Amino acid sequence: YDLCVEKITPEQRQTLDLSSWKVAFNGAEPIRAETLERFAATFAECGFRPEAAYPCYGMAEATLMVSGVELATEPSVQALDVATLEQNQVVVVDEQSPNASRWVSCGRSLPDQAVAIVQPDTSVSCGPDQVGEVWVAGPSVGQGYWQRPQETQETFQAYVADTGAGPFLRTGDLGFLHQGELYITGRVKDLIIVRGRNLYPQDIEHTAERSHAGLRAGSGAAFAVEVGGEEHLVVVQELEFRQPRDTAVVMQAIRQAVTEEHEIQVYGVVLVKAGTIPKTTSGKIQRRACRAAFLAGQLTVVAQDLFTPTQVTAPAVHLNRASLLAAVEGDRPPLLSHYLQAQIAQALQRDPQQVDSQQPLSSLGLDSLRVFSLRSQIETDLGWDLPIADLFSGITLAELVQQGLRQLENSPAERQLPPLQPLPQISTNYPLSFPQQRLWFLDQLDPGNPAYNIALMVQLQGDLNPAALARSLNEILR
């Protein structure tokens, strides 16, 4: 929903009619009130109604749906005291309170399901307005994981210690019940969710520790923190006992490695002294404790680099293919460099002067969404079909300028694509056949799985322009 708000143009909004949209499900991750409000305000002129927003909660192990709000009612939002919430207690305060945070209700559980809030460490039921792990029971909950009896026992056969109620499914999510409605506050597990992507911390930690010889193996923690209403990635990493002299180079290496490997921006890189990362007695990284120490400013920091988005005040830089190629040959490199520097800075929300022409772009924190946005702007302005992989390959701004000039000077200008002619809509609906129902059900279990994609071979005659073909197909799909 946030991405729709960010990317939609006024011209595109004028073509939309959302008045028939009755239910807009939102339940893939903890729901933010700001997201619902921004979406409703942005698309109000298109006929979207705020009461169509449908916050809900579900998971695959429960056959998706666990709870949901009433249809055709605006989502319920509660303002809670941050300090008491950190102690797992729910205290409702005024929205104008300086210590208030807003939480969106996921509605009530389905009639044939039961939801319990349980202390994750003791399995004792929580009191009213107390945060704990969400447990779910009901006929739609699965029987377990295929041929994984131990995990099935731990996850699907949970019993409340003080009441004996069960069996329940342990969801791994934190939440609370307030006036009978479920609110999700976070996750017990360490899974990092940033911009809808599920990232495993151990993968990021492994990438980070291998990025520089001055870093200790098995002594890093990756976790997410909320900054400006969004989840961002932080990497805390121990240095070797013989610390490298230039910590800026080390932090740049971590940023570059994580961006290139995982296509995600690192909000914060924190280097700490050897032996100071919180660990269990068996040597396992305590990521939640490390995150709490980071937020409280209690880490033994040697150096840190926190990315702080800035409001770009520099004037917009405009350049098109015709004006670039019309310039004398010697003026083209600085023109293109100035343009690209401005576009990269805009994508990163940084000052253009912070974009070093000799620094790999991946070390600046260009994640996948920012790369796609940057590439789209460049293609719109210059007609330059810049490969996505190039921006993740460690290329510098100076190298990008040379590559761009070679392509733009040696390739003909692209012809304008003819407008697409819409076909008449077929309004007749037919019931799905049994095989179609089966395919639909499989897609609900594993959305986007390409197992049933149909491959097609086409024989072409004459020369092929792959870039033009790709653009044409993308235009049709769009």
Describe the structure.
Belongs to the ATP-dependent AMP-binding enzyme family. Residues 334-408 form the Carrier domain. One of its GO terms (biological process) is fatty acid biosynthetic process. This is Polyketide synthase modules and related proteins. By secondary structure, this protein is of the alpha+beta class. It has helices spanning 2-7, 10-13, 33-42, 82-85, 149-156, 201-209, 247-262, 287-296, 321-326, 332-348, 368-382, 388-391, 397-410, 434-445, 466-477; strands at residues 24-26, 53-59, 64-68, 77-81, 100-104, 108-109, 114-118, 132-137, 169-178, 181-187, 192-194, 197-199, 215-227, 230-239, 266-272, 301-306. The chain folds into three domains: 2-187, ANL, N-terminal domain (Rossmann fold), CATH 3.40.50.12780; 192-306, ANL, C-terminal domain (GMP Synthetase, Chain A, domain 3, 2-Layer Sandwich); 321-410, ACP-like (Non-ribosomal Peptide Synthetase Peptidyl Carrier Protein, Chain A). It has 15 helices and 16 strands. The strands form five sheets. Strands 1-2-3-6 form a four-stranded mixed β-sheet, with no helix packed on it. Strands 7-8-9-10 form a four-stranded antiparallel β-sheet. The protein starts with a helix and ends with a helix.
The CATH architecture name of the largest domain reads: 3-Layer(aba) Sandwich
Which class of the largest domain in CATH terms?
A: Alpha Beta
Task: Kindly report how far apart the N and C termini lie.
Answer: 18 Å
Structural class: alpha+beta
Structural Rg: 26 Å
List unreliable stretches of 5+ residues: none
At the third CATH level, what is the topology name of the largest domain?
Answer: Rossmann fold
* Overall strand count: 16
The proportion of strand residues reads 15-25%
| CATH homologous superfamily placement of the largest domain | ANL, N-terminal domain
Largest sheet, spatial ordering of strands: 1-2-3-6
- Counting DSSP H or I runs of 4 or more residues, the number of helices is 15
